[in-house]
Amino acid sequence: GQTSIGGAILKAVTALQDVNDAQKKLLIISDGTETTGPKILDERVQQSIESAKVTIHTISIGEAADDNLSSLSEKTGGMAFFHDEVSEEPSVPLEAVGQLTESDSSEDNRLYQVNRQMMTINARSSKTAIVDFDDSIGRDTLFYFFWSSETFNSKKLKLSVTSPAQKVYKYRGVKGPIYCNIEYQMCELRVAGEVKPGEWTIIVNNRDKKPLSMTWEVFSHQPANSDSPLTLNTYISRSIVTYPQTVTITASLMKGKRPVIDAMVSAVVTRPAEQPVTIHLYDNGAGPDLMKYDGLYSVTFTQFSGAGRYNVKVIASQDYTNNRNFNSSSEDLTRMIKEKQASLGARYIFDDLPPEGSGINVPEPIKPPSFTNRTMLPRFTRIQSLGMFTVKGYRSFEDAIPPSRIMDLTGRVTSEYGMELTWTAPGDDMESDQASAYTIRVSTSF
Predict the structure, then answer these.
(1) pLDDT (tens digit, 9 = 90+) per residue, 157-177?
(2) CB atoms within 10 A of CB 70
(3) Is the pLDDT at 130 greater than 90, yes or no?
(4) Which pTM was predicted?
(5) Cβ 389 vs Cβ 415: under 8 Å
(6) Which is nearest to 194 in space by CA: 133, 145, 143, 255?
(7) Could you tell me if 56 and 88 are in contact, meaning their C-beta atoms sit under 8 angstroms apart?
(8) In angstroms, how far is CA 86 from the centroid of its own chain?
(9) Other beta carbons less than 10 A from residue 402's beta carbon
(10) Are 71 and 77 in contact (CB under 8 A)?
């Protein structure tokens, strides 16, 4: 049929004319290009958007979706998402809608994406998953379950969700606390009110003769009396990438106004014609991360697979491995950090000064942590869909991306004619892979 996205925008803007400017939001979901006018780029449509001061969020379904959708979001201050029908699971559009709900809500009513997993349950078997709830979530909680096999016999599905208080919610083929829509291949559980922190247990029992692929995800609000929520906010440096430009992905992880350090923060990036890639973000003062210990985790994305649309999701969680390589101008502080790494997970820090004599310059207002004045965090997970960016002009045959800059070079005199240099190693392409060689230049004057 004929498609006029611009015409739909004009009708939506008219419907929103009596709405307060701050509340004017549009969500456009499309899987094709415009075939008739009025179109997005028509002057009348652009003038209508500008005068209405409306924010437009977009979800592009498949590679055939109109290229102007993402630029429309960028121009109006909205968010753009991409869903690859071929390689992605069916819950991606819902995840995007959840992110838009989160970004458009007040802090007290913010909807957090707590966790999300894909699992395969073999025939006549079951699987168990654990979801950790910390004390800054747990009000009006939502569980969603999706499966993708149209031949799966839903009568053979058993679902149970157990709360930290050991209250059990079940689905056994009849209506109950867990409601399932078999036609849309999904189930949902809504838990009203507040629940205490702790472990939620999900059990999926597949009694069918065929394996079942399922995706589940959990959303929740912060409790009414929570004054220090654990928040994840994510940013991307550009939405249009002209190769060999790169993209910086940044995540801010805070407990109230305090930075959370030593967390495990990763980005999952879906790519054209390739499997998704997972990369780690660091708060180590190297590469694109300008300052360590400030709760801002960063990475430069360079693992391009071709021209097209890329979708980004960031996951932050408690990290009990802590194999980070911390560097400091104080040998004692470095040693203390390494001794703590094996046993400490994510924690947030107070506005305290570093130990006297540590040799660290402390720019206000960010200060490195001391080991006596910090609070350990319970197990947690936060997920945020960052949206999409588009790569143009990709050339696979050209190694055009340089290593990242060395930001923390330090030197120590070891003898009359010797010096030891220490730095955080950059990669071959920014922070990715490994640089093949270094050039060291010496000068007797500056």
Answers:
(1) 889 999 999 999 998 665 678
(2) 24
(3) yes
(4) 0.74
(5) no
(6) 133
(7) no
(8) 21
(9) 14
(10) no
